Inverse folding.
């Protein structure tokens, strides 16, 4: 049986949990259902919000536009997403929340602007 230490980020308590991984997964140390669900997801299908910067053409005062995914993506897709982002050059104006790249890698997640560029 394999064990994995997890710190929950589902609420401010930050429970330190242990996942026992065998034929089934057992989560121990959670103080609420949110922690249990977070621990289970972290073991089975870990996901993260991706933050990055893209190049800007003709943007006033900025050479880079800060961006993030509007939902968590699988950790295993992070490097592939970064390859797409590195090859992208933003043009035009962006407000906070505007979609920069729609449906990145077909994951159903958009890359959105986190700063304004005129």
């Amino acid at each position: 049986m394999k064990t994995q230490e997890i710190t929950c980020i589902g609420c401010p308590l930050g429970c330190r949990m242990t996942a026992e991984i065998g034929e089934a997964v057992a989560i121990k140390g959670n103080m609420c259902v949110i922690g249990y669900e977070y621990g289970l997801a972290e073991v089975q299908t870990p996901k993260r919000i991706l933050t990055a910067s893209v190049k800007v053409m003709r943007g006033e005062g900025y050479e880079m536009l800060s961006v993030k995914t509007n939902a968590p993506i699988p950790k295993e897709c992070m490097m592939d997403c970064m390859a797409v982002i590195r090859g992208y050059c933003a043009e035009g104006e962006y407000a906070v929340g505007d979609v920069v790249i729609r449906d990145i890698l077909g994951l159903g997640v958009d890359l959105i602007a986190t700063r304004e560029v005129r």
Remarks:
- Residues 8 and 15 are 5 Å apart (CA to CA).
- The chain is about 20% helix and 35% strand.
- The mean pLDDT is 93.
